[in-house]
Amino acid sequence: MWDTRFDERDVKEIRTKTTTYLGVGAIAKIGDIAADLKARGIDSILCVTGGHSYKLTGAWDYVTAACAKHGIRISLYDKVTPNPTTDSIDEAAALGRSADAKAVLCIGGGSPIDAGKSAAIILANPDKTAEELYTFAFTPTKAVPIVVVNLTHGTGSEVNRFAVASITKHNHKPAIAYDCLYPLFSIDDPGLMIKLSPKQTRYVSIDSVNHVIEAATAVTANPLSILLAGETIRLVAEYLPKALANPEDLKARYCLSYASMIAGTAFDNGLLHFTHALEHPLSGIKPELAHGLGLSMILPAIIEECYPACSATLGTILRPLTPDLKGTPDEAHKAARGVETWLADMGVPQKLEDEGFTENDIPRLCELTRTTPSLGLLLSVAPVPATPERIEKIYRRSLKKMDA
Length: 404
Hints:
Dehydroquinate synthase-like, alpha domain, 404 residues, AdhA-like, alpha/beta, 49% helix, 9 strands, 16 helices, alcohol dehydrogenase (NAD+) activity, seven-stranded mixed beta sheet, Rossmann fold, Alcohol dehydrogenase
């Protein structure tokens, strides 16, 4: 396979709707990106990031040096938390507006990227708020240019048109997707990811796996989303254990970064359905819940429900995790248990009860799947009908470990 022969230090330019620089040392390309922005007349940018990783990884040093060289002023918003809120997006956009920022640079994983992409829309639509954006009170057609320095191998947001944020007062966590959200440039530098904690290393790659399971099985799936799904799962199955065993294994980080990038492209094509629609209420209620952990706890039950309708596809793409699948409808429970076992082997055995959810939470979770903006669209493309009974069944089946 290509990954056994490829030099992870050979930075490559990969074009989707975003130009992405992938490889160890790709962060140095921020100099070329800054030159491009200046040539477009951009002399002030808003940088949206979290509190620490942008400095700890060394990314900030490259960014400040490149912007200083090309005469670009930076307004720094470094208050993004996991599961970012519409309030923080408005706060970031206000900072950018006060500095006349003409572009947004996102540094971090999914949360800073989603917050920054959303702020780019608000900057281009100054009479609107982030809550209006995430309640679909308007349909944006423009955003200021977006640049991403990605610090995790899981989000996929650096190459697609999606973003997510929480509307705190409603416990709602909608997703948006607009063409104006495609980043202009992105950087995927595995060298910036070696400081990811073991938990985050697990969670972000599990996010990639969920992206492609959904993208390959949605009614909107296409040959490309299915092709990318198989390669994503192969890479995660092989290289996640290596990254956990040796966090500084750059080959492993490279392959997981590539897997994340193509997973982002896969769901840009095939869309998402049950797992993300049912996870968003979990982290809507418990904002401290890591997204990848929430996904992992409900994935096996969702596979069991969907498998009979798309057994040939799931039987093929899941083989790196559950090798003896035949791809026949009768093995739904076997496939679900196999994935649950793999997740536990990767160090993520938790189920909903382990994270404090009980039977009493299920009615509220089910209600949020119905009332949270955008989740109905995700559920509408699931491979089996997303009935209230099925959604409740999935949550209940996810409370505890499945029976053998």
